[in-house]
Amino acid sequence: MPPAPGDREARRKDVSQAVWQVLADKGFGGLTLRSVAAAMSVSTGMLMHYFPTKRALIAHALDLLEKRTAERPRRERPTAGLAAVRAMLLDILPLTLDDTARNRIWVSSWDLALADGGLAADQADRYTRLRATIRPHFEDARRLGELPQAADPEQLAATAVAFTHGLVVQALFDPARFPEDVQTAMVDDFLAGVRRVRRR
Description:
Order of helices and strands: HHHHHHHHH
CATH class of the largest domain: Mainly Alpha
């Protein structure tokens, strides 16, 4: 018997918490109805009222991950220009234990997304939105004279995201080589190079 509407809403937070616990412990590779049910001490049959398929469970987990990423604590944002870009890039990197755990979960989701057209489209959309949030700050930087007038804010946003996520992966696999101070210095070096951008 499916849960009553009130019970369903009451349990939704418990389900989401269990999904997050499994993600934090095992990543997407360990995310199954059985593992979430075990985390909640319930049957897989009960969970199937929420997630009738494995794909539904994965989609919920990705939504939950995106929500938690959006709600994470962030640095105070300067109002405009490259200082704002710097704050945004540092907020992406695995500089704290929580940021590291969240990035590990994101990276573990990529294999699933590459194998599923719908999930891949969702991930591409996330990147589009991320670039769109960074681009206006490059536009401001150009207006403020921090960048040459020939600089292309859209391309710079794409480059910044590619650089930062590449650094995320390296820092996750080799944290001793890429501690917090090294990651921060690399962001500063990247932005120093951006200041010298010229149209070719």
